Amino acid sequence: MGSVEPDLKRTFHITIIGAGLAGLVAAIALAKSGYKVTILERDGKLHEWGAGIQIPSNCAKVLRQIGILDRVRACSIQPRTHSVLSYKSGATLSQQTMIPMIETVFGAPHLVIRRAVFQRVLVQQAETLSAITIQLGAIIDPVLSDFAHGSICFSVDGSETKEVTTNLIIGADGERSMCREILLGRSDPPKLSGYVAYRLLIEGSRILEAPESSIHALVNDPSVNVWQGSESHAVSYMLDGTLNLVLFKPSTSNNNGGASRLKPEPVGGEELRSQFV
Known about the structure:
By secondary structure, this protein is of the alpha/beta class.
């Protein structure tokens, strides 16, 4: 698209289906390149799913190119090391120093950030760009729409159907993607990975109060830690005073790893203990 003439860019309309991280980054990049962009999001408000997210250096380079790396970096933590530990003994199996190596070698930092904060920065940036229109609560009618000819019909809060005509449609509508099914011409439901991830946020002050001093480093040393086990593993890193801990293990009928776990769902301590203790 870099070869599109400037005059054509001003009239070339791009519609992005989905206002998640991918949709927002794409919209900002395209708007800054001179295109008019409309984002259609089916939810009536932007949900702040998830806990933490890692931004590797290749992604950080993209954020720099669209002018928001400094803002994201100010809200992030830059891990000092990346350690792989034994799930049995806790012994360090390997360790990679990340500061300053990652930025020196790859040209951009490796960051960790709260997903909600990351999304908020992207939304704020998108809202400053006059070329971007965000329509929340847009329920697309796949029957009335004609994606092949750039026609998207949608309604908001049960109102009468509106039509957007567009030159390019980008599908960024997640694992239950309507765009994917329209492109393929058939049903294409999400395929389960066979794993379930349990995400926990633990206040750093609570960890420092624990009598086991060996775990205090999880708070005091801003690093990414991976405990590697047989078919399972755990990952932790700090997020502005809170430890983000993710536990991965194969799905079984006992941990309800089926279709009901395609999106975040709260679980109790009893289930965690039954799976990991």
